[in-house]
Every structure is written in structure tokens, then in C-alpha cells.
Write a structure and sequence with these properties.
single chain, 300 residues, 2 domains, 11 helices, 6 strands
């Protein structure tokens, strides 16, 4: 069994870093500690770990539910810029739940030990840094930052605060991938010559076409805060609920999907990243569409 401090350290155990970046040596990469991602157990009679969730969309609710499955964890409050998600949080986790549009309200509370960050990508670095400076342990959904140059600030904030920081990545945390890693290291799979990985997202949600609530309005959504430091635009619920479609707010296919393929393979093989990389592409679907557009009598 572990003390509450050790529990927090193991609960937020892994900092994702990119070797070879221009700022790598500047932040003291050799001082960054990593921890195995095993579910910790609280010592009998130990204090509870009190969690607050920031961003209550799809992953926000999933992360919160997952955290509450760990013995000794309790939810203190949630923050989101859309009132409908705050109402839903009360329905799911209890009407007593503290809710706010302002994540800073949660960071100022003494009864919050850990924050879960599941906002749009453009807010990850700012909230993570603010939370670490406030003395909170941090679990942040991937990607850790929207832009590579923002990574140094988060790492420095973690090192200065000494608080645990974990960047969430499903496949790195998967028991299936952990078993695959054991089989690979034991030689059960054999010599590795080629890895082919794919992700299929053939549905509306997979294409980020998330539903838009009928009550979405300037009154129910703090749209100006969502925009952060991006160019100001008139209220647009599509931008708010389907932010992954916009370069200004997200990281596109690489940050949402490719990272799963790459991080999972790196975890299994123990790789720190490629030494060389090249890309190829083709326009078969586009060519087929052109042939089948009626010009050549194609009915497929």
C-alpha cells in the first residue's frame, strides 16, 4: 500500500516528450522521471484523492468515470464553457457537484488535489501550467500541447512545481498493449520486419461531426473564452462543438489519430521515435470518383 503522496505520483506517472527537439536540452530532459502505469492502491485509512475535471465533453466524462473507478478517488467539481455539460455533470455525478465555467475556480480550491484536462487542444498548455503552479497534480489528455514550442513551458512548470503530470494516451495505458509488449520482448512474436497500422473512423462521430445541442447560444456558451488568443469570430456553435475540424483549435488527424498508432507501436517495441521517415500517397478514391461522376457512364 502507498501513502497519499506516492499514490498521486504514480497516478500521474508519465510525461510524454519528443527527443531531438530544439528545446530538449534546455528543459533538462535528463531530470524528467517516468513511472510505470500500474493502478496504485491507497493505504488503509489514507486520505482521499480529490479530483476536478476541466472540459466535460466526450473524453471529459470518460476520464472522470475512469478516475472514479480507482479506490480512494472522489470528484469535487467540474468546469466547462457550455452550461448543458455542467447540468449533465450534476445529473451523472450528483446535484451536489460544484460546477463552473471558469477553471480557475477549481484551481483556487484547497480541496482539489488533481485536475483532469480534457478541453480543446489549444487550452491544454495554459491550463496545465496554471494547475501545476497552483500545486495540483495533472492528468492531461493528449496532445500535451497544441504547438510543439509550447511543450517547454509545460515541462518547466512540472519540474518547478514537483507535481505529477501524466499525458493520457489510450494505447500506452492499455493492458492489451502491455501484454503485446511482453510477448514481443519474450520473442514470442519473432523478429520484427514490418509493422502496418490502421485506424478506421467511418462514421459521423469518427469524422468529428459531433452533434450540436439545440440550446447552443451565446447565452449558454462562453464562446469568447473558448477562442482564447485565436482570431475573434462571431459566435459559431459548429466551431465550438466540432473544434477538431479547425487548425486554430486542434491538431487534426496527426494529434487525434496518428498519435495512437505511433505511441502504441513505440510502447510495444521500446522505440523512442523514428530515425528516418518518408510519406507516400495516392488519389485512388478521387480518381474513382472522377470516373464515376457520370462522364464515362460509370454507375458504381
Amino acid at each position: 500500500m502507498e501513502s497519499r503522496r506516492t499514490f498521486l505520483t504514480r497516478l500521474g506517472g508519465l510525461i510524454g516528450l519528443m527527443a531531438g527537439s530544439s528545446w530538449w536540452s534546455a528543459v533538462g530532459a535528463s531530470k524528467v522521471k517516468t513511472y510505470a502505469l500500474h493502478q496504485p492502491a491507497m493505504a488503509s485509512g489514507a486520505e482521499k484523492v480529490r479530483v476536478a475535471a476541466i472540459g466535460m465533453g466526450i473524453m471529459g466524462f470518460q476520464d472522470t468515470r475512469s478516475a472514479l473507478k480507482v479506490p480512494g478517488v472522489e470528484l469535487v467539481g467540474v468546469a466547462d464553457l457550455y452550461d448543458g455539460r455542467l447540468r449533465r455533470a450534476k445529473e451523472v455525478f450528483g446535484d451536489h457537484m460544484y460546477t463552473t465555467r471558469h477553471y480557475q475556480d477549481l484551481l483556487s480550491r484547497n480541496d482539489v488535489d488533481v485536475v483532469l484536462i480534457a478541453t480543446a487542444d489549444l487550452w491544454h498548455n495554459t491550463i496545465a501550467i496554471d494547475a501545476l503552479k497552483a500545486g495540483k497534480a495533472v492528468y492531461c489528455e493528449k496532445p500535451m500541447v497544441q504547438l510543439l514550442d509550447q511543450g517547454a513551458g509545460v515541462i518547466v512548470a512540472q519540474q518547478q512545481s514537483g507535481r505529477p503530470l501524466q499525458v493520457g494516451s489510450q494505447r500506452v495505458s492499455s493492458v492489451l498493449y502491455e501484454q503485446a509488449k511482453k510477448l514481443y520482448e519474450a520473442g514470442e512474436i519473432g523478429d520484427l520486419n514490418l509493422v502496418e497500422a490502421r485506424i478506421d473512423r467511418h462514421d459521423a462521430l469518427g469524422a468529428w461531426q459531433y452533434s450540436i445541442p439545440p440550446d447552443a447560444s451565446p447565452q449558454t456558451i462562453d464562446f469568447d473564452t473558448f477562442l482564447k488568443d485565436t482570431p475573434k469570430v462571431p459566435f459559431d456553435p459548429v466551431r465550438f462543438f466540432r473544434w477538431r475540424n479547425y487548425q486554430a483549435y486542434g491538431t487534426g488527424i496527426p494529434g487525434d489519430l496518428f498519435v495512437h498508432l505511433l505511441s502504441g507501436l513505440h510502447f510495444i517495441t521500446g522505440a523512442m521515435g523514428p530515425e528516418r521517415i518518408y510519406a507516400t500517397g495516392m488519389l485512388r478514391l478521387l480518381e474513382r470518383w472522377s470516373r464515376c461522376a457520370g462522364y464515362h457512364g460509370c454507375s458504381a
